[in-house]
Amino acid sequence: MSDLDDLLAFDRDHLWHPYSSALTPSTPHLVESAGGVRLRLRLPSGERREVVDAMSSWWCAVHGYAVPQLDAAAHQQLSRMSHVMFGGLTHEPAVELGRRLIDLAPRPEGADASPLQHVFFADSGSVSVEVALKMAWQLHVNAGRPRRKMFTILGGYHGDTFAPMSVTDPVGGMHTLFTGVLPEQVFAPRPPAGLDVGPDDPAMVEWERATRELYARFADDIAAVVVEPLLQGAGGMHVYSPYAVQVLASLAREHGALVIFDEIATGFGRTGTLWAAQRCGVVPDVMTVGKALTGGYLTLAAVLCTSDVARGVSGGASGALMHGPTFMANPLACAVALASLDLLQANDWSAQVARLEEGLARGLKPAADLPHVRDVRVLGGVGVIQLDEPVRTAEVAAAAIERGVWVRPFRDLVYTMPPYVSTAEDVATICSALVGAVAEVHGA
User: Fold this and answer.
1) A GO biological process this protein is involved in (predicted)?
2) Phi and psi for 426 in degrees, rounded to 5?
């Protein structure tokens, strides 16, 4: 048995991959190394193949791989300490990262500073959403008016831990198995598709009417409105308008609930502005960030909140937010995150994402003429080919690899979120591979 056969056999028999069966596992591709925007694979046949990563490793490796500046930050921090508990201790990387996140946080137009002035570090995006929901629940308990429910929209995805699962789409989402076990939240209809759908559009008028009516039924029990602004990621890459976000935020504030934005996928420029909140013209009370925060090097997330929220959460009998991950504010992750934020600025992320948007719009356009393609859409550094049938995932992925690209479709979507550093040629390669793979597999 070759070393490759041995590795894949052990993987098949013992390792459980995301959203997969331990009984009938698929065969993954072995990555030997990565650099720039490319992964170096060993295929099950033993062949070595270099492919462009169209996924940014689930949207986080925005600077690509083997990035000298991030490598240097990691090495430098390793020479000091890789980890120290955050309970009772602090360290410079955490302090400086908190300062940077507050400086970058969305703010009202014309304001000198963001109202998001407090930072709670978490060790994954899902945990950051867990913390944000706990903040909302605890704030209302401390105020003497406990509220049990969250208000959100169908089609969302907020993570795989317990509380985030409860605000993920209970019908079309991936957690329907847990119906009856999870807390039951309130789900409004999914807003009409399209970034430019305004308040007078008939579909928006009907959505707003139904959403306001639903909210009114539960208003006294709603602790917070929780949404991914503008773009629902793993729930279907659904793009919707800033006006819908404004409606949802106004409902929360009219009735004393918090506004929570999950910017884990949309933050740090992915949709074209640093935060999707900026395009919506809404500053949330609580905001979660993650994924691109460390450029894909280490797991780290953060929850930002206003001073009012911090006081409300801390003002009860407990006197504290009852949460504390072991790896909270890990120094190594914080140091790399600081270098990643420096690199976003140095590389002019806005221009990078604008180039991605232009290249994706041009390169994916031919897919609209293919059989079984229902929609082609682009928002910032996100390109989507949506089919009218479920994607034959393994076949499309294999066809893309043959064209020099790694892609991981899901549901009815073949999509890409390329690293920001992708060149025009890289983007053209990605688009050609996705269009070609869809034509080959779903063209009949």
Assistant:
1) biotin biosynthetic process
2) -60, -45
Please tell me whether residue 19 adopts helix, strand or coil conformation.
coil
Handedness of CA 75, 77, 80, 85 (dihedral sign): negative
Instruction: State the Cα–Cα distance between residues 363 and 328, nearest whole angstrom.
Output: 41
Tokens 């559009």 locate to 201
Using alpha carbons, list the distances in angstroms from residue 351 to 62, 309, 418: 14, 35, 14
* Residue 238: alpha-carbon gap to chain centroid: 13
Which residue, 287, 382, 295, 381, is CA-closest to 343?
295
Domains, the chain, ranges and CATH?
A: 3-63+348-443 (3.90.1150.10), 72-346 (3.40.640.10)
**Pairing assessment for the beta strands 48-53 and 38-42 based on DSSP bridges:** antiparallel
d(CA 156, CA 150): 13
E-strand ranges in 283-334 read 286-289, 301-306
* pLDDT at 249 exceeding the cut of 60: yes
Active site residues: 19, 157, 262, 291
What residues form the annotated binding site? 58, 125-126, 157, 262, 291, 324-326, 408
The upper half-sphere exposure of residue 405, i.e. CA atoms within 13 Å in the direction of its Cβ, equals 31
* pLDDT over 60 at 232, yes or no: yes
Give residue-wise pLDDT tens across range 296-344. Answer: 999 999 999 999 999 999 987 778 898 999 999 999 999 999 999 999 9
* Geometric angle at alpha carbon 416, from 341 and 196, rounded to 5°: 85
The residue behind tokens 């930050």 is 73
Q: Which residues contact 3 (CB under 8 A, 6 or more apart)?
A: none
Average pLDDT of every residue of the chain: 95
**Phi, psi of 407, rounded to the nearest 5 degrees:** -140, 150
